[in-house]
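User: Show me a protein chain along with its predicted structure.
Assistant: Here is one chain, sequence first, then structure tokens.
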Amino acid sequence: MESGDGEAAPGSVSVRLISEDGQQLGSGIFNLPVGVTTIQLQLLCNQLLEQSDDPVPMSFFTEEGTEIVDSLKKSIENLDYETTLTLVYQPQAVFRVRPVTRCSSSLPGHGEAVISAQFSPDGKSLASGSGDTTVRLWDLNTELPLHTCQGHKNWVLCISWSPDASKIASADKNGVIIIWDGATGKQLNSKPMARHKQWITSLAWEPYHKDPKCRYLASAGKDANIHIWDTVTCLVVRSLTGHTACVTSIRWGGEGLIYSGSQDRTVKVWRSDDGVLCRNLTGHAHWINTLALNTDYVLRTSIFEPRGNCQRPESEEKALKIAESRYASAMKVCGEEYLVSGSDDFTLFLWSPAKSKTPVGRMTGHQALVNQVAFSPDTRYFASASFDKSIKVWCGKTGKYLASLRGHVSSVYQIAWSADSRLLVSGSSDSTLKVWDMKNRQLHTDLPGHGDEVYTVDWSPDGAKVVSGGKDKVLKIWKH
């Protein structure tokens, strides 16, 4: 495997190795046999990185996002022997998530459908919101109910844990927001947070590295408004107005921007500190249903490092450092904050919203509306769940189509990635969950058990558990 001047011998191919942030490895181009395996590539990389004593497992991808599985020859169709092939090497996640294969508990308690369920950022607690007007907190060690939070007068439509895992915001069909203490289940807001004239669709906390006190929360509603709340004073500090129809989804990014998608067919980009509208992203021909950021996972887990067992840092100072460095590492890998939007027009758009109002890519192929999109924690991929019964997987940098995951017999409502980006779970109106293996992009495990449609699904940030809930009013916890 000598480094050469790029002239490949018959049966060999010229390969350049680069890291995810574009740094070239070694002195240049390597002439490698076409049958070179990923194990041999890994050996070469570790030698060049001088890590032979403690080799790091690696994954290899083409610049288009195709993963090299087994060998070059097997992975790349129409391998071009004339041109130099650039391979991106990526150290694999240090921990592996095992696929969930069984239901470890069924948790009854809600009197109506479970509309949303979300693990806390440290993976230690679970909150659920229901049509029965309550939010419930569950103990994940015993898998028993901890607290029933009562205060809403209508369906609880969305819930969101603060990035420090200390509190939960919930919002209802009347347009009221309540903040709950994550440990005691007590209501924290001293007065009602009710500025929306209709129901609330989406909540987003300011990221920890911008707001270590976890004080500010954004809400979006059917009334086309977005409000930024100070959750201590319970007052709106800023309103973002400009949408002309229901705002269906908001994201608070790590670069000081808030992104909103609406039934007015636009995505708007706002500066969070003064509420100025920076960009209007147009292109969708119908309602926008869903948004996702490539930084979602690192912002969600903030100060809790899954490799460190999601332990809470000893001091606020240390916590801030961890949140900043984890965000910086994620940005180094992905280069910039990317946003993907999914719509009733069956398409998705990939945006680089801080830089341009022109999309990076437009993704077509779904035969029905796109209900949810989600980026993998390693930012390499995003997946889309559709009413056409399929999930599609796309390259997180280019939007290139990679695979379709088929197996559900009805609409796919929600999807969630495992922390190591190797697995994806989906919940459907066909009453099943399915776990997909992202290496071979095939069904890994079928998880029947719910009595009706599955509305919500989440994978714990440490990878140990999946939660699902839906029309049968039961929460289910799934484990390996």
